[in-house]
Each structure stands twice: as C-alpha cells, then as structure tokens.
Amino acid sequence: AQSVTQPDIHITVSEGASLELRCNYSYGATPYLFWYVQSPGQGLQLLLKYFSGDTLVQGIKGFEAEFKRSQSSFNLRKPSVHWSDAAEYFCAVGTSGTYKYIFGTGTRLKVLA
Amino acid sequence: DAGITQSPRHKVTETGTPVTLRCHQTENHRYMYWYRQDPGHGLRLIHYSYGVKDTDKGEVSDGYSVSRSKTEDFLLTLESATSSQTSVYFCAISESKEQVYGYTFGSGTRLTVV
Fold it and tell me: In terms of CA atoms, which chain B residue is nearest residue A105?
C-alpha cells in the first residue's frame, strides 16, 4: 500500500543549528514529493517539490530537500534554523495520473533561543 | 491564503445537526479538495472535485457529502454531525491533474461538535 512516514513527531533544535526532517515513502510509481509547512492556526504552505530532474531541490525560506530513490526518502534540510521556522512540517507524495496526495502525519519543530 | 477562502473559520454545533462548510476560490482552478486534520493522522482526504459537478470520494468520506455547482465554490456538508467529526477542515485547490504544482490551502475551519 502507498504510504508516507515521518518518523519524528517532535524535533527541538537551537536557533542557528542545522535541521534535517525525515520523510520516507512507499509508492509503486515514480513519485511527486512535497514538503509543506504549517504555522499555528494557519493553512499549509508549499515549501518545495520534486517531480523529476536534479534530486536536490531548493525551496522557499532557505530550505532544501534531497530525493534518494534507493532509500525511498525525501528529507528536508536547512543549514541554520531561525526562530520563525518553528512550525509543523508535512511531507506529501503523489504520482502522475492521480488527483490526490498522501500526507505524512507531520513533524513539529521547536526552536530554542 | 490569497485566492482561497473558507467559511466559517470557527463553528460549534450540536450532535445530529447538519453543517455546511464553504470553500471559495478566485483562481479558476479545476481541482478542489477537502481534507480533515487530526492529531496523529496528518491530513486525510474527504472528497475532491475535478470539475463542476464532478466529485469523488477520498479515504474518509463516510458521513460527508460535497457539491460543486460552480468552479469557484466547493461545499462540504455533514448531514448529521457527530463528535468524531470534530476536526480542522482544510480546503485546497490545484491547477493541474498532474499534481506537479502542489496545492494551495485555505486557512481552515475549526469545527467542534458537542
């Protein structure tokens, strides 16, 4: 069955530290992969997406993610976290010909001053 | 989010009453979606629409119905609300069936069924 796993429910990092949020997927076809961010009380905002080409993709707010087919992973990274990055992050997977995505359960990021 | 609005933003209703949530977009996107968000479950698809009067069920459609009579409006109805439908509901829009562009989400409706 198709699935998306975000193994970390909560992550706490200090401001200025590097960040990596994990996402693993199980999908039969070539996936489209997305990361979204949700600030408290808000909807989800698209950070970045991958559907072909270069496996390292750049997004907004200084985030990047790398698609590793051999590991079925699409981990989100940021070299230096800012206090404003505290939010919940969702990984999502879709595929060509379908109308919808599957979302992971989210990782809540806390940033320490 | 710009171009997509949900109403109401908050609602408290009693068990057994009907409830309709509205999603309105000004982007002229063909594809519209209703998700619910619950702790530990992420976002789960309730229903989606791929055109006017064209809708289909998602993974958690029981107890919900939808209608889309105009491109810009997608309504979600709980025919008889239950406490298990207490949730945050998000509408999303997409311009492409191929899903390469991602979704644009509304700000959500927090529904409490008492």
Answer: B42
Question: What would the two tokens of residue A25 be?
Answer: 């997927």
Strand partners, A36: A46, A90
> Vertex A74, ends B57 and B29: CA angle to 5°?
40
pLDDT tens digits, A31-56: 889 999 999 888 899 999 998 888 89
Please enumerate in sequence order all residues whose Cβ is within 8 A of that of A80, keeping only pairs 6 or more positions apart, or say none. A16, A17, A18, A62
Half-sphere exposure of B88 (CA within 13 A, CB side): 19
Kindly list the residues from chain B whose CB atom is less than 8 angstroms away from the CB atom of residue A98: 99
- How far is the C-alpha of B98 from the C-alpha of A31, rounded, in Å? 11
Residue B72: partners with Cβ closer than 8 Å, 6 or more residues away: B24, B25, B26, B28
Which of helix, strand or coil describes residue B106?
coil
B62-102 pLDDT per residue, tens: 999 999 999 999 999 999 999 999 999 999 998 876 666 78
Contact A104, B42 (CB under 8 A): yes
Distance CA B53, CA B33 (A): 13
Which residues of A fall below an 8 Å CB-CB distance to B?
Answer: 32, 34, 36, 41-46, 49, 51, 90, 94-101, 103-106
Can you say whether the dihedral through the CA atoms of A59, A62, A63, A64 is positive or negative?
positive
CB contact under 8 Å between A98 and B99, yes or no, is: yes
CA distance A93 to B105: 16
